[in-house]
Design brief:
CATH superfamily of one domain: Tetratricopeptide repeat domain
Largest sheet: 2 strands, antiparallel
Helix content: 55-70%
Radius of gyration: 31 Å
CATH architecture of one domain: Alpha Horseshoe
Distance between the termini: 107 Å
Oligomer: single chain
Strand content: under 5%
Number of helices: 20
Number of strands: 2
Shape: elongated
């Protein structure tokens, strides 16, 4: 499960013109622009609701002070614009103004988690320490641990919290997700069903059921669950969709459609997911990748730029951006993206494939001779073949043959360009060649 909890509350805020024009530095060098982030729609949520998941949760919570509300709302606006550094500063200012502003602690944790900061766990903990039944922070704390591979810690934590909050559908659904991540599909389905018994309309539990079916490769059951969420069943007036704009459900169905070869359906669902949740990095990168595959680099560009604003170290996004740059003939920028990925994870097959394409087809790469460039292409493509799944078929062998032909052409051109030594004169007829005269003497003696 990717990020499920960005900023809480209903987002009624648009982006200021300043935020829309902000350039954001990305790791490895370079900057990205706004990336077509869109504007938050009235009533739009980019997170789980701030309301309790049952009638017994979330009563009589304190109101955030006016001094904290100003910077908090500025932090929300910065987050919508994808300016995480500025959002972090504003949320910290809100906490300084009101240490009990539990929403600001939670929202700070969301930003810190996207910035890969372990301090996010402490921010989440601060929020549910102030408000013990504050479900968004409890869920985020557990799922961050689970996503980092600490599923046993998340399991024990949620068991404890569920003991204190037995009527929380949110904690049951989160526990189901943790079980699913641990490949305990039986308990995952059981816990999600229990969440729906407490709150039959709790959408995150429905999504967990579909996602667990998908992880367990029960694709038909996953699609059935997604149909209930997104489409409903005939007659629709009696069985309406439970949440037809649920971004995570749209993303999941897009992934399934792509696996099944339904490119048009996948792109449609990815587009809807991005429109509903512009911060959903996986949907943005997946859609950008499909656009690249169709040759639409210019359309892919704003999508992947936006993805990097919400997750600046996302390696697949850097790979896609590098390939966009390559197709736009920005070869230095492309190499910068690929080199960054290589420095972070050289075991990724795709980065070697992309570098092979760059070296093979770019007219020139700074610091490399044409022969060095084609040799670099060959080395990158062979490395890709070593790392890719053994049963995978692709065009890498064809590319290697092209590199071999190109090297032959370059060697032939070099040979042709070398100056030709003059041919010595033929020996005189009937005998050996005349002796070479001493220096300064004429070759033929003068006639008397």
């Amino acid at each position: 499960m990717k990020h499920v909890a960005p900023v809480l509350l209903l987002l009624l805020l648009g982006c200021s013109s300043t935020d829309e024009n902000t350039q954001v530095n990305v790791p490895g060098g370079g900057t990205v622009g706004p990336g077509g982030l869109g504007v938050a729609q009235p009533g739009q949520q980019w997170a789980m609701s701030d309301a309790g998941s049952s009638s017994e949760i979330g009563k009589n919570r304190p109101k955030m002070s006016a001094a904290a509300a100003g910077p908090y709302n500025q932090g929300m606006t910065a987050f919508v614009a994808g300016d995480l550094a500025k959002a972090k500063q504003f949320f910290q200012q809100a906490i300084q103004a009101d240490a009990k502003a539990y929403q600001a602690h939670y929202s700070l944790g969301v930003v810190q988690e996207r910035l890969r900061e372990e301090a996010a766990l402490n921010s989440y903990k601060q929020a549910f320490t102030i408000i013990p039944d504050y479900e968004p922070a409890i869920v985020a704390y557990a799922l961050m641990n689970a996503r980092k591979g600490r599923t046993s810690d998340a399991d024990a934590f949620l068991s404890q919290k569920r003991g204190a909050l037995p009527k929380s559908a949110a904690l049951l659904a989160a526990h189901a997700e943790v079980k699913s991540l641990a490949k305990d599909t039986g308990n995952a389905q059981k816990l999600a069903s229990e969440a729906l018994k407490i709150n039959p309309d709790y959408k995150p539990a429905m999504v967990v059921i579909a996602r667990d079916h998908y992880r367990a490769r029960r694709i038909d059951l996953a699609l059935y669950a997604l149909q209930a969420i997104l489409d409903g069943f005939e007659p629709v007036n009696e069985n309406p969709p439970r949440d037809k704009e649920n971004a995570e459900a749209l993303l999941l169905r897009a992934l399934i459609y792509r696996e099944q070869g339904n490119r048009a359906g996948a792109m449609d669902q990815f587009q809807k997911a991005v429109a509903r949740r512009p911060d959903l990095v996986e949907a943005r990168v997946s859609l950008a990748t499909m656009l690249l595959e169709a040759g639409n680099a210019d359309q892919a560009f704003p999508l992947v730029e936006g993805a990097l604003r919400f997750d600046s170290t996302h390696l697949p996004a850097h790979l896609v951006l590098g390939d966009v740059y390559r197709l736009q003939s920005k070869y230095a920028e492309a190499k910068q993206r690929f080199d960054y990925v290589l420095s972070k994870d050289a075991s990724l097959p795709q980065v070697h494939y992309n570098l092979g394409l760059l070296y093979l087809f770019a007219p020139s790469i700074q610091g490399l001779t044409p022969l060095q460039q084609v040799d670099a292409a060959t080395a990158s493509l062979k490395k890709y073949q070593d790392l890719r799944p053994k049963d995978q078929t692709d065009d890498s062998e064809e590319l290697l043959n092209r590199a071999k032909l190109k090297r032959g052409e370059l060697e032939a051109a070099q040979t042709a360009a070398k100056p030709v030594a003059p041919t010595p004169p033929p020996p005189p007829p009937g005998g050996a060649a005349p002796a070479t005269p001493p220096a300064g003497q004429p070759a033929t003696p003068p006639k008397k």
